[in-house]
Backbone:
């Protein structure tokens, strides 16, 4: 993953990705690193795998941060699709309210620090600076609808 950020080792990563005995976890990390380096083939691979998974806490906790790491528009667009979904597929983080909520709340929190000029901000802990997540979601949806050519911050 570090190779993806520092943009090195593309040829070695490509060879390793094609090896038949490589395990899925390593293959995923290599694909992410190559996607981060701008490989549309590997970005497609990552987004297609994510598309096969149900939207739930596991997707939000493990796959979405990886897609955001790539800093590729196609991967971020997939995240925006989740922001626009109205199905309640994620468990609430509040143990006193064991209910399903929109996964969009988690995704907008993850995207806030990496989208330029995004109207929502996060604090040092990564939590949205808002007292009203429903209102924040309306703001995020409207912003993405009005800014389809948004810019992604490249720095880690």
Residues:
């Amino acid at each position: 993953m570090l190779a993806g950020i520092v943009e090195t080792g593309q040829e070695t990563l490509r060879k390793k990705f094609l090896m038949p005995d490589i395990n899925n976890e390593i293959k995923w990390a290599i694909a992410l690193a190559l996607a981060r380096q701008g490989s549309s083939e590997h970005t497609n691979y990552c987004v297609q795998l994510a598309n096969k998974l149900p939207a739930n806490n596991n997707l939000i906790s493990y796959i979405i941060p990886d897609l955001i790491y790539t800093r590729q528009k196609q991967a971020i667009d997939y995240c925006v699709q989740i922001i626009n979904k109205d199905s309640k597929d994620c468990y609430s983080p509040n143990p006193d309210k064991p209910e399903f909520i929109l996964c969009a709340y988690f995704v907008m929190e993850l995207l806030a620090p990496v989208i330029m000029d995004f109207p929502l901000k996060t604090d040092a802990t990564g939590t949205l600076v808002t007292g009203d997540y429903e209102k924040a979601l309306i703001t995020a949806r409207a912003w993405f609808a009005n800014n389809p050519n948004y810019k992604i911050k490249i720095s880690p």
About this structure: The chain has a mean pLDDT of 94. The radius of gyration is 16 Å. The beta strands are 88-91, 100-102. The longest helix spans residues 57-70.
